[in-house]
Amino acid sequence: MPHPASPPRVNRRRAPRPRLPQRLRATLAAACLVLLACSPMAVRAALPLAVDGQPLPSLAPMLERVTPAVVNISASAATQAAGAARTPGSMRQNVGSGVIVDAAQGNILTNHHVVRGAASIRVSLQDGRSFNATVVGSDPDTDLAVLRIPAQNLQALTLSDSSDLRVGDFVVAIGDPYGLGQSASSGIVSALDRSSLRAAGYQNFIQTDASINPGNSGGALVNLNGDLVGINTMIYTPSGGNVGIGFAIPSNLAGEVMRQLLQHGQVQRGGLGLDTLDITPRNARQLGLAPGSTGVVVARVADGSPAQKAGIQARDQILSIDGKAIGSSAQLRNAEGLLPVGRQVRLGLSRAGAKTEVLLRIEPEQSERLHAGALDARLTGVELSEVGRAQRLQGNDGVAVSATFPERGPVAARLQRGDIVIGVNQRPVSKLADLRDLLAGAGSQPLVLTLLRGRATYTLVVN
Fold first, then answer.
1. For residue range 80-134, what is the model confidence (pLDDT) as tens digits?
2. Which of 237, 391, 428, 449 could form a disulfide with 460 if both were Cys (CB 3.0 to 4.6 A apart)?
3. Same domain for 85 and 213?
């Protein structure tokens, strides 16, 4: 049976709708937006004032207790070119933050780099008062300093046990970024035990994504209870601004450094008496180590040192210190420098493939002097030493010029006994080891020495 034929298609076109004038269309669109913003749906999307009868959590009560203990610091230092006449008004100013940790004594924790070489330091409190501060002690190797102000009715923060921190814990950074005034930013602990972040110093940083910006240095990193867990110190940034990678000194380390600065005016550090090398495929073959060896190998053991007393030998591999794995010489020096004098440590070793452990005690560092001409012939006639206690009490670090013999070279004729070398070619110098490394890498290029002489900063170009 044949299917009926399909009915013929008819093309029907809708009549065009009349277009509204443009101004009228814009008015209606704006009206729709207003209605949408006022609709019940928009109200339901807003944050509720309470959940199950409980108000939403807020950091405001904690911050009201904590922020009076965080201060603004303004440090001024004179600057001057070497050989130039001193001119009034040539001052360098650093701005940072600090944390009151002892209300009765007026003690404030901050960063060493905030007050380094300062001729005057002014501390401003949240309540509007301001005071001149003195440096109780300063430690460039951990970038910490203790200041004191003659003030009453202060509020202090309690140092928490930073070893309780875990990655993921919430924290709040408080300080004075860019000199805008006190502010707070929140985040989490992103990582712990960060090191190898800069050329000099001992490091054991808390990493956080709480915003830390210039001016926050020396400010507080607190937990949600308002306890001090760290001192904000530095950021990693390719652009100069915050990218969510900030670093703070743990409160346990800050507390130990502060204790020594209050007792001695400086941190008494010791050593194990080891010179070490990072293991590479090339030196592993030369040292007769097993293929694929990594880590650290002992190059030299100092006579009479704790390492020699413990029986450590050249070519021993260092595997760990107090159970913590050691993967590089820098990591070993960092761990060694953070341990107090007199502390007994357990060193894990491998000798000829056999693993063992030895116990040894950190002993005080020995004062060292050297002739700078042995490092670079252009510095002939200059004797250098570590900065003394008196200078460290003033917040200065670097390498001291302990003697000059002007007849032996032009640089010696321009330097003076008591000058402090704080930089070479725009790189900081905190101790003799830094100067050795920088001069070794300079070759024959001109040297730009940054010096402290009294309270003024000089530069000296050596061709």
1. 544 444 445 566 778 889 999 999 999 999 999 888 888 889 999 988 899 999 9
2. 449
3. yes
Which pLDDT band, with edges at 50, 70 and 90, does 232 fall under?
very high
Q: How many domains does the chain fold into?
A: 3
Is 113 among the catalytic positions? yes
Token pair listed for 246 = 């900030």
For position 13, what pLDDT does the model report? Answer: 43
90-103 pLDDT, tens digit each:
667 788 899 999 99
| Residues 262, 278 within the same domain | no
Q: Does one domain contain both 136 and 249?
A: yes
**Radius of gyration of the chain from its Cα atoms, rounded to whole angstroms:** 31
State what percent of residues in the chain have pLDDT above 90: 21
Encoded tokens for 285: 């073959």
Does residue 172 share a domain with residue 100?
yes
pLDDT at 228: 94
Query: Is 217 marked active-site?
Result: yes
Give the rounded percent of residues in the chain with a pLDDT score beyond 70: 79
Is residue 52, in this structure, part of any structural domain at all? no
Three-state secondary structure call for residue 421: strand
The residue annotated as part of the active site, out of 113, 138, 160, 190, is: 113
Look at residues 386, 385, 380, 384 and name the one whose alpha carbon lies nearest to residue 405: 380
User: 93 and 237 in one domain?
Assistant: yes
CATH classification of the domain holding 326: 2.30.42.10
Give me the mean pLDDT over the 274-285 stretch. 81
Pair of tokens at residue 118: 């300062």
Bridge partner list, 173 = 185, 221
Phi, psi (deg, nearest 5) at residue 449: -90, 130
**Domain match, 456 and 359 both:** no
> Residues 185, 190, 217, 293: which is the catalytic one?
217
Q: What is the C-alpha to C-alpha distance for residues 185 and 240, in angstroms, rounded to an integer?
A: 18
**Residue 252 sits in which domain range?**
59-269
Whether 91 and 174 map to the same domain: the answer is yes
Degrees, nearest 5: CA angle 397-402-404: 130
CATH of the domain at 222: 2.40.10.120
- Listing DSSP states for 333-376 in one string gives HHHHHTSBTT-EEEEEEEETTEEEEEEEE-EEPPP-EEEGGGT-
Active-site residue, from 139, 143, 227, 419: 143
Cα dist from 31 to 17, 28, 34, 35, whole Å: 22, 5, 5, 6
